[in-house]
Amino acid sequence: MRIASVRTHDIRFPTSRELDGSDAMNPDPDYSAAYAVLQADDGAEGHGFTFTIGRGNEVVRAALDALAPLIIGKPIDDLYQRLTHDSQIRWLGPEKGVMHLATAALVNAAWDLRAKRAGLPLWELLASLSPDEIVSLVDWRYLTDALTPAAARDLLSDSSDSRADRVSELKKHGYPAYTTSAGWLGYPDDKIERLARQAVADGFRMVKLKVGADLQDDVRRCALARTVLGPDVRIAVDANQRWSVPDAVAWMAALAEFDPWWIEEPTSPDDILGHAAIRRAVHPVRVATGEHIANRVVFKQLLQADAVDVVQLDACRVAGVNENIAVLLLAAAYRKPVCPHAGGVGLCEAVRHLSFFDYAAVSGSLDDRVIEYVDHLHEHFLDPALIAGGRYLAPTVPGFSTQMRPESLTRYAYPEGAAWQ
Amino acid sequence: MRIASVRTHDIRFPTSRELDGSDAMNPDPDYSAAYAVLQADDGAEGHGFTFTIGRGNEVVRAALDALAPLIIGKPIDDLYQRLTHDSQIRWLGPEKGVMHLATAALVNAAWDLRAKRAGLPLWELLASLSPDEIVSLVDWRYLTDALTPAAARDLLSDSSDSRADRVSELKKHGYPAYTTSAGWLGYPDDKIERLARQAVADGFRMVKLKVGADLQDDVRRCALARTVLGPDVRIAVDANQRWSVPDAVAWMAALAEFDPWWIEEPTSPDDILGHAAIRRAVHPVRVATGEHIANRVVFKQLLQADAVDVVQLDACRVAGVNENIAVLLLAAAYRKPVCPHAGGVGLCEAVRHLSFFDYAAVSGSLDDRVIEYVDHLHEHFLDPALIAGGRYLAPTVPGFSTQMRPESLTRYAYPEGAAWQ
After folding, report:
1. Cβ neighbours, 10 Å, residue B306
2. pLDDT at A20
3. Nearest CA among B141, B289, B301, B327 for reference residue A275
4. In this predicted model, what pLDDT tens digit does every residue of A109-153 receive, in sequence order?
5. How far apart are CA B184 and CA B287, in angstroms?
């Protein structure tokens, strides 16, 4: 199977009009997707995207157009390597920023195509691969001081006999979720209270609040949430990179009385040593990060430095499915839970496949594992994420659930679509 | 002074035709610049660029076009903050990859404009600022666990009385250089031998060889260079990120007999802990990196982790002059020499200003400090770097030396220029 063509789209939703998605670093996001459609030489299509929050989405689309010639006319099987090993393109990263976001969209589109062809939802396709096949999907350069291909193969083989049981369990019971919908920074207190009560009624056992703009506000909001939720529902807090290391330590000391389960993105996503220092200081509060971690090399170091308790991979920030398999293997080797970042546009749809695969074939554990859920923009996808009783239901439609409805691709096309006129 | 307009250019030189610039990771670079011209409301112009090696340069140009609306009509003084603190754009990094390369070009163009207006070469303009003014140019977010503004001010104040002496000394004697022109991986042995002899005749006391593609070749080339150069001329080697950590350690053990001065870019530029491990293993050979370090947060950690001996800042990879001042201050605080990356297109022209400023006002030292020099493409600049006796002469023309000749901007415009027809 070869790639015959690549179509690209700049899709934006005017979410800043409602303050949905507002946090301390991102006050007015317009949730967006740089979107790619791969067409194979037999006419089959794979859809993939990366998520951005508005301005600059056209630059990621330009990156998609710049990468397309590397893969058109070529087989689909080595697409990830072709995109990340081009020597001239590599200079623009390596493996980070705009080019890597675009790579994620193309790699994910290729997996959507493969899974559709296999007639399986992506997580089941991945869970059907042998340990050797899974190991071969990873680019091991820069990883072998922490994990070797042989050690990864052993790790996968250890649990391969019981995979089928876990696949059945996932189909029956789904996978735990937590909700961020209650805690956006732009929401007034009464809305937070109402949404927190609703979250518990919906079966969620963890709620996340945005913090980091104003300490007095954060204390009030955390106190309110703890009162409404009681002592047994977990409250995660998320600073969206707002702090330097000393700020993070001081701010979390002031929030400790509300028993936060984790502090997410306390500082720069590039600051491995900073996360390690914060983690030592805020214990027993856990440190979580990942949605802005540029690539597997940084994830590797966060684990080597014992800098995180929770690995929050993102479906579209690193180079899609292939690089995320490296992250899942590293996290399993270091025995840290993966709790993916989701929300945005289509991230819930996509990333659930990775967590389902993780439980089925990699970590084999659900302990302290939850996938983020935000009730937002799902209606634009052909195979939207479904939640019941605070759990993601298992995806059943062939593919990676990354395909938007044709009418959404038209209406939210930027700047020419009707939503922007 | 406000910005009235931003013009952008995609400039590429077909250097891959000659194997100049070939190394283990970049076999066929077409040295390129994403180039910006800021016009102030009084008509004055500042020119700046970032360096790439070909494919994807159009994406950086698209990033310049995406950033321009953030600064048009706005004062020039807070341009750096406007470009790096836009919440939607920030999602695409933060502060890394294509958007950050484009930010570098714009920030550098602003400094070219300021220095021209002041009637001073940039290094002298910077060396005329007070410690407080210099400190105010830095974005201190994410740095204060390693260096505070107050400590930076103290560091600058300590040497401010003797600045004038060092400025005079620089004008008289220039700044030491080393050459990479002899050691490109694509060159045959007889060419390396001839160019190494020429380098010594030209007054250079250090020569750099590219390594990392084939160990037997590297041993032969290093032996040849050591024989030709004798024991007293330093030989640096540069692997351009080719190795994982265990490879780097093994490979350098095999090259140790040739007494390399430093090993440059032994592994991924994102791998702080990897550099620290390599440094411990290859001692007394020094570890150098920087040309691909994404931002000040990663430089900070390389210093905190004692992972490097030599800080190789690049004029256009981090966000231009402002962020490089943070890097100079961090390096001075940790007492590590800065030996900038140069070569490419215009990097020698630009980065010498930063080293001259470093000696005049920041580190106050020339010990083990050298600026890379590559004899390449200087003819396209209005104020080309000048070398005599193995030293950079002090720039004397007002500005940042970042302006290309108009005829070069026309001839090498991609894809429409005559050089590409």
Report:
1. 14
2. 67
3. B301
4. 999 999 999 999 999 999 999 999 999 999 999 999 999 999 999
5. 20
Candidates 3.20.20.105, 3.90.76.10, 3.40.50.2300, 3.20.20.120; CATH matching B157-406: 3.20.20.120
**Tokens 């052993």, residue located:** A154
Q: Which helix (H) or strand (E) holds B372?
A: strand B371-373
The average confidence (pLDDT) of chain B is 96
Give domain A3-120+408-420's CATH number out of 3.30.1330.10, 3.60.40.10, 3.30.390.10, 3.30.70.3450.
3.30.390.10
Would you state the structure tokens that stand for residue A331, as one six-digit string? 């996290």
CB contact under 8 A, B55 and A66: yes
Instruction: Give the whole-angstrom CA distance, residue A69 versus residue A88.
Output: 13
Q: Which of A86, A270, A273 shows the shortest C-beta gap to B295?
A: A270
What rounded mean pLDDT belongs to chain A? Answer: 96
Q: How far does the CA of residue B94 sit from the closest CA of chain A (Å)?
A: 8
A59: nearest CB among B25, B87, B99? B99
Nearest CA distance, B274 vs chain A (angstrom): 8
Min Cα separation A401/chain B (Å): 23
Give dist(CA A60, CA A12) in Å, integer: 13
Residue contacts between A and B (CB atoms, under 8 Å):
197
Contact: A271, B301; criterion CB under 8 Å: yes
Q: Could B55 and A89 be called an inter-chain contact, meaning their C-beta atoms sit closer than 8 Å?
A: yes
Indicate if B157-406 has the same CATH topology as B3-120+408-420. no
- pLDDT per position as a tens digit, B385-421: 999 999 999 999 999 999 999 999 999 999 999 999 9
**Known active-site residue B173:** no
Across the interface, whether the CB atoms of B98 and A94 are under 8 A apart is answered no
Choose the CATH number for A156-405 among 3.40.190.10, 3.40.470.10, 3.20.20.120, 3.40.50.1820: 3.20.20.120
For chain B, the structural domain boundaries read 3-120+408-420, 157-406
pLDDT, tens digit, 9 for 90 and up, residues B126-142: 999 999 999 999 999 99
pLDDT band at B282 (very low <50, low <70, confident <90, very high): very high
